[in-house]
């Protein structure tokens, strides 16, 4: 089946044009309340409106980040929606469930604004909490950037890496804050090379390794533009596992449908004979066939094995619009 780029693009823009319905906010609050227990894990998505399973709430997400409830708005709401949202959140803080959860803060991030303004609705925001995911520690950075340092929908991918890299050399492309690298070292990887042009993100990745008391002699950080550094990347190989998790679009540096192909055609010179590739894409505009067919064109010696499941809290009305994490061998 050929990928239907036009259909996915159309669906994506329909999603972003969806009106927000303040009458549905009680559903939003009830869904959050149902998960607020003293045993709630340190970091988790509590509400994923972007999965389009709740009509009228498609532009809302809610994450639990170190005992802090961080809500993101992806589209500017009508004033009455904002008034009702804040009112419902204040009422939430007055209930026994909220206090029993140990919650410390409610913050609202306006993702539709250029600087993603963060408003604290209740409590005091801790901008750099250390959270625990399956026994691994990560320090977040909440409020300054669009993302807070750990992509929660990729938790299954990190766990897969942790379970499958013992004794291997790993290349982590578009490493960001090195979540995959932390999982790989925890899983017994021999060596990990992290490549990302954002040196500040790699510095945070180094700190994440230190939080987990990892041997940094087994970890390499390369703050380079991937497309201008193949020689340096190749020198540290070959690799038993290559992880590719690029942004869908990054102005001036990465365009998904154009540049992914350039990466895959390098697999032959970077990968060991029995090596594996974890290829990821998180754009609703393309489906799994984009990766499968592009891999077939550029690295035909690699065969598609499986798509990793996404965490259940990230369920999407259209599974092809959500995160795609595919294993090739």
Describe the overall structure.
Pfam families: Methyltrans_SAM. With 329 residues, the protein is of the alpha/beta class. The protein folds into 2 domains: 5-139, Transcription Regulator spoIIAA (2-Layer Sandwich); 152-328, Vaccinia Virus protein VP39 (Rossmann fold), CATH 3.40.50.150. Helices cover 31% and strands 25% of the residues. Helix 5 packs parallel to helix 6 and helix 9 packs across helix 11. The longest helix has 14 residues, at 79-92. The model is unreliable at 1-17 (pLDDT under 50).
Number of helices: 11
Q: What fraction, in percent, of the residue positions are helical?
A: 25-40%
How many β-strand stretches? 16
* Unreliably modeled segments: 1-17
What percentage of the residues does DSSP assign to strands (E)?
A: 15-25%
Class based on secondary structure composition and strand pairing: alpha/beta
CATH topology description of the largest domain: Rossmann fold
Main pleated-sheet profile: 7 strands, mixed
**Count of folded domains:** 2
Give the distance, in angstroms, between the N- and C-terminal Cα atoms. 21 Å
GO molecular function, one term: methyltransferase activity
Domain S-adenosylmethionine-dependent methyltransferase: 44-329
Keywords: Methyltransferase, rRNA processing, S-adenosyl-L-methionine, Transferase
Protein name: Ribosomal RNA large subunit methyltransferase I
